[in-house]
Write a structure and sequence with these properties.
By secondary structure, the protein is α+β, with helices and mostly antiparallel strands. It has eight helices and 18 strands. The strands form four sheets. Strands 2, 5, 7, 8, 9, 12, 13, 15 and 17 form a nine-stranded antiparallel beta sheet that branches. Strands 6-14-10-11 form a four-stranded antiparallel beta sheet, with no helix packed on it. β10 and β11 form a beta hairpin. The mean pLDDT is about 85.
Length: about 290
């Protein structure tokens, strides 16, 4: 058995939820010099550019989680403010992007999976995105781990989908069928100026927490059933987020998947698999009525 096959086999065998929750407790612990030492080791191992962080000194962070979800300096990620531009929601790298064909989206070469399953299983949540576009962005350990809005949006629904916690790195994506539709995830569906937009925050091995700005920590604890919450389009309890505004965060790295409907927006020509992404930079452009 070669090394790659061994790595995949070990992921099937590991108690991934238990391991992830244990790491989560350690990452939330205030352990003084031990925490600072771990952070320094992590910075060195993954070549993290701390000059971008609002607080550059590793000793500033009381827990590893505080470091991992560190804010950036103001202005370090300029936002593409043009109304027709859809901005990148995260720092990371594009894994795949393209069209939703027959309700399927691409995971990796030779691996497609169901958009309906990804979004929690309900046809009504899937129909607006059929024939549209999708993009999968992988956040590596070195990346900034807050997730931002690619356009102005009004939250209409959040869905928690229980699942496994496989790693979401490129090797796993190429070898574990239905990876993103089998891992634990949180789906947020927005009404936006380009139409319906789904943002899927996918959990992974040792991802200690998925949070949203409006609900706080959604997981853990992990559930066994799909849960959904509906939100009003207007009124006192409406949740509106502007382009570039933070919408969620990962405590340890993972993947974000975007989906929007047919004839809503096209990816820019320079956006391809393996393209490095920076939050706020141009990703796609709205299709106007004269172009549609």
């Amino acid at each position: 058995m070669n090394l790659d096959k061994l790595k995949i086999a070990m992921q099937y065998a590991l108690p991934k939820h238990a391991l992830s929750r244990l790491v989560g407790k350690l990452a939330a612990a205030q352990a003084g010099a031990l925490t600072t030492g771990l952070i320094k080791l992590f910075i060195k191992q993954y070549k993290i550019d701390m000059s971008e962080a609002l607080y550059e000194d590793p000793a500033h962070y009381k827990t590893f989680n505080e470091f991992f979800t560190r804010p950036l300096k103001n202005g370090i990620r300029p936002l593409a403010t043009e109304p027709e531009i859809i901005a990148h929601p995260v720092d990371g790298a594009i894994s795949q992007l393209g069209e939703v064909v027959d309700g399927q989206i691409i995971q990796a070469k030779g691996h497609d999976y169901s958009l309906q399953t990804l979004l929690g299983g309900k046809e009504e949540d899937t129909v607006p995105f059929l024939g549209g576009k999708f993009a999968t962005i992988y956040l590596a350990p070195k990346d900034y781990h807050r997730i931002h809005m690619p356009v102005d949006g009004t939250l209409r629904k959040m869905i928690y989908v229980p699942g496994d916690l496989f790693s979401v790195n490129p090797l796993t994506a190429q070898n574990v069928p239905n990876l993103f539709a089998r891992n634990e995830r949180v789906v947020a569906i927005f009404d936006t100026e380009i139409g319906p937009l789904a943002m899927v925050l996918v959990g992974a091995t040792i991802v200690a927490s998925i949070e949203t700005i409006w609900a706080g920590t959604v997981t853990p604890p992990a559930g066994k059933d799909v849960f959904s919450w509906d939100y009003p389009a207007e009124g006192d309890n409406v949740i509106k987020l502007n382009k570039g505004e933070e919408m969620g965060r990962f405590k340890l790295g993972s993947t974000v998947i975007l989906a929007w409907g047919a004839e809503q927006a096209d990816f820019l020509a320079d956006q391809q698999p393996e393209t490095v992404t920076r939050m706020g930079t141009p990703f796609a452009t709205k299709i106007t009525s004269t172009e549609a």
